[in-house]
Amino acid sequence: MRSLSVVVLAGLVVAGCASMANGPSSEVNIATQPVGARCTLSGADGFSAEIATPETLSVPHKAAPVTVTCMAPGYRRTVHTLTSSGSGWLWANSAFIVFTGGGAVLGMMVDEAVGASTSYRRDFNMDLEADAGRRIRATQRNGGPTFDLKTP
After folding, report:
1. Bridge partners of 40?
2. Which of 57, 62, 25 has the alpha carbon at shortest distance from 39?
3. pLDDT at 75
4. Which CA distances in Å does 121 have to 14, 28, 58?
5. pLDDT beyond 90 at 143
6. SS3 40
7. Is the C-alpha dihedral spanning 86, 87, 89, 91 positive or negative?
8. Phi, psi values for residue 64, rounded to 5°
9. In whole angstroms, what is the distance from residue 109 CA to residue 20 CA?
10. pTM of the model
11. Which of residues 107 and 137 earns the better pLDDT score?
């Protein structure tokens, strides 16, 4: 009986282990090609940030998915989504729930509440597409010369 009490107590002690180990946010390195692009990030729960690449910033897990919009002179505006994925601690909580007979459900609830059951990848890279010039062709109605221009 005493060993069962120890097991249950141990399960409750580690409840919310993802919150303790993973935390509510991830450090993400955001880089672009070309370097020096201006990027805005926006996500759920009111998260927003403005950076110049490369930059490392703390992104809250509850902000997922995060829209990353980058611009640089001579390049097209590029938009990508930074998504989070399940943390390994999610599986640890599941194992503790089974091991303790449901006693560690509190831990999973705590982790979900603070967003600790997910995380972002460490490096997020974006290649911006060069802004190609447009070709403009003008033909006169009276059969005069044709103009062929290319914008920068």
Report:
1. 50, 69
2. 57
3. 94
4. 25, 7, 12
5. no
6. strand
7. positive
8. -65, 145
9. 13
10. 0.61
11. 137
